[in-house]
Amino acid sequence: MKQRLLSLFRFVYLSLYLIAMVFPLYWIVITSLKPQKDIFSYPIKYWPTTFTLDNFINIFKISKFHIYIGNSFLIAISAALIVLVIAVLSAYVLARFTFRGHRQIMLAFFVTQMLPGFIALAPLYLMMSQMDLLNHRIALVLMYTVGLIPFSTIMLRGFFQRIPGSLEEAAMIDGCSRWSALIRIIIPVMLPGIASTFIFAFVQNWNELFLAALFIDNDSLKTIPVAMNSFILKFDVDWGSMSAGVVLSIIPTILIFAFAQRFIVEGLTQGAEKG
């Protein structure tokens, strides 16, 4: 009897948790497909009487949404690729070699994850201003890269430690250089970790709002999260257009997680085993 009650409690708890997680997404999608009269109708309509694509059409009419998508994709993919290259190399060194300052470097990486990012806003803004990089995509690429390198390095270091050093030693005995062994032997084995790290970096860059809003003021250079603010008017909020924009903005991340789910789960699990 006790076991049945416990199972029932778990079922009810997990069901409520699932509803709490899924309902906001459901509401955003339904709102994006509602006509304006249904969005503000009372009593609230949890299922629209008619479906319309007017909100999706409207966001391309009243804003440069296709440009915002392009900006977000260019910045997110560029920063994620740079982070991946630097993190792979630095994680390999930290996992395979012991040298003076090794522990201090790892400690510094961990400390950066504990500090709130906003404490660096003033010096960052001053640096970007002196380098004449305000209102430039490269500014966001640089800041996103620097911000994600510590965590990505820590994550990939766990994967390198999990791979026995004898694997690359055998490759070097067969004539490979250390660099060749890394590229041809170790990295293919680490594909789940590399994929999960890249996806993590891409999603973080894609969704970032604060830095993008602070350093980009030119409308043609804005990213999607910043562009969403344009639907918040002085005395009103265009919920239909905003919901349509949110739906379009989450499609790339949904597709990435759908196609790379196996790599993500396997990569995060393996990387957590040893760090």
Describe the structure.
The chain crosses the membrane at residues 12-30, 73-95, 107-126, 138-160, 181-203, 239-260. InterPro entries: BP-dep_ABC_trans_perm, MetI-like, MetI-like_sf. Keywords: Cell membrane, Membrane, Sugar transport, Transmembrane, Transmembrane helix, Transport. This protein is mainly α. The chain has two domains: 1-52, no CATH class; 62-273, MetI-like (MetI-like fold, Orthogonal Bundle), CATH 1.10.3720.10. It contains 14 helices and no strands. The protein is globular. Mean pLDDT is 84; it is low at 271-275.
Strand and helix layout:
Layout: H1 2-32, H2 36-39, H3 54-62, H4 65-96, H5 102-114, H6 121-130, H7 137-162, H8 165-173, H9 178-189, H10 191-207, H11 210-215, H12 224-227, H13 239-259, H14 261-273
Helix pairs in contact: 1-13, 3-13, 4-7, 4-10, 5-7, 7-10, 7-14, 8-9, 10-14
Summarize the structure.
The protein is mainly α.
Q: Which tags fit this structure?
A:
275 residues, mainly alpha, MetI-like fold, 14 helices, globular, disordered C terminus
- How large, in whole angstroms, is the Cα Rg? 23 Å
Major sheet attributes: none
Looking at the overall shape, the CATH architecture of the largest domain is Orthogonal Bundle
Structural class of the helix and strand makeup? mainly alpha
Could you name the CATH topology of the largest domain? MetI-like fold
SSE order, as H and E? HHHHHHHHHHHHHH
CATH class of the largest domain: Mainly Alpha
What spatial form do the alpha-carbon principal axes imply?
globular
Strand content: under 5%
Report the strand count. 0
CATH superfamily of the largest domain: MetI-like
Query: Average pLDDT, to the nearest integer?
Result: 84
Q: Terminal Cα separation, in Å?
A: 42 Å
**Percent range of helical residues:** over 70%
Main location: membrane
Subcellular location: Cell membrane
Membrane topology: Multi-pass membrane protein
Transmembrane segments: 12-30, 73-95, 107-126, 138-160, 181-203, 239-260
